[in-house]
Write a structure and sequence with these properties.
Blueprint (H helix, E strand, L loop, with lengths): L5 E3 L2 E3 L3 H12 L2 H27 L3 E4 L7 H10 L1 E4 L2 H4 L2 H17 L2
Parallel strand pairs: 3-4
Antiparallel strand pairs: 1-2
Helix pairs in contact: 1-2, 2-3
Length: 113
Amino acid sequence: PKRKVSSDGMSVNISGLENIAKRLYDETEDKALTSAFVFDYISKALLLMSDAYEAEYGKTEFVYAGGVMSNSIIKNMLSERYDVYFAEPAMSADNAVGIAALALRAFKAEQEI
């Protein structure tokens, strides 16, 4: 199913996504269809935000990381339009990995002083 993502510049509204996905699943009982719909919707939201960012700041190389960003639907959609970089799936599965990497970098920087 197609649904328009509501956006205002670099902000998007996904507050109704859970209800839409629940209704779709209740009507179809199709887990794959419902999951694909959710990831397609999230991809479109990210595209809108990225479009708005480039409209304001110019062409950009984007880095996307985090658990949701390891999804292939999202990766493929964003890669078609932008110069993008993604963290490896093992590093995207848990946001704590990014925080741990930043903490390690800060610790190493302190040791060099």
